[in-house]
Write a structure and sequence with these properties.
This protein is of the alpha+beta class. Helix content is about 35%, strand content about 25%. A hairpin with a 2-residue loop joins strand 3 and strand 4.
């Protein structure tokens, strides 16, 4: 899991991105019993629900939003449900910017992005 560390002045540093080897391990863990694209997307969704620390704030187009949850759409995409001032918007997890510091479990988003870039679209 990505960890943050404190600087001498107490500020939080951004966690190091997961290595390719670590991402490959996470992909293998997620997909161990998944067959077909739908099951694979569902497996990643389950891992995100289990490991991603929610809710968390991030910035989209210069506006702070809160990522409340992740959902699996009927067409097999994983989206982040973002809210602000009573409004909600779904944003593809592939396009979601990470805050600084990133939440615990963000490496699962990185693993999903690596997998999706190699097998989809």
């Amino acid at each position: 899991m990505a960890r943050t560390s404190k600087t001498a002045r107490g500020n939080t540093k951004r966690p190091k991105p997961a290595s390719t080897a670590r991402l490959d391990e996470l992909i293998e863990e997620a997909l161990v019993d998944a067959y077909g694209e739908d099951e694979k997307a569902s497996a990643f969704h389950c891992m995100l629900e289990d490991h991603l620390a929610l809710p968390f704030a991030t910035e989209i187009l210069g506006v702070e939003v809160v990522v409340e949850r992740v959902e699996l759409t009927v067409d097999g995409r994983i989206v982040a449900v973002c809210s602000r001032a009573g409004y909600r918007q779904r944003v593809s997890i592939l396009d979601l910017p990470f805050p600084d510091p990133a939440p615990d479990g963000v490496e699962w988003i990185e693993a999903y992005r690596r997998w999706a870039g190699g097998t989809q679209r």
